Amino acid sequence: MKTIFVQFKCSPGMAYGVADALVQEVEEISEVYSTSGHYDLIAKFYLSDDRDIGHFVTERLQVLDGVADTFTLVAFKAFG
């Protein structure tokens, strides 16, 4: 299982809509938070080992209505 975090820049006024769409439409999501700073949201996803991260982000996440930009982080190890 691979863990990735994706930050989302949303079109003005669309952050809550994007968060709702992520929760409703993307089964790989674990959680999503609104954030301050350069990005509006950050979400955690679990992907199967054979899943291509690039295809997942570009074909499932970047195409959601209201998503203006994404920034993806790949997690290597969880501590604690």
From TrEMBL:
Residues 7-77 form the Transcription regulator AsnC/Lrp ligand binding domain. SUPFAM superfamilies: Dimeric alpha+beta barrel. Pfam families: AsnC_trans_reg (PF01037). Transmembrane segments: none annotated. This is Lrp/AsnC family transcriptional regulator. It comes from Jiella endophytica.
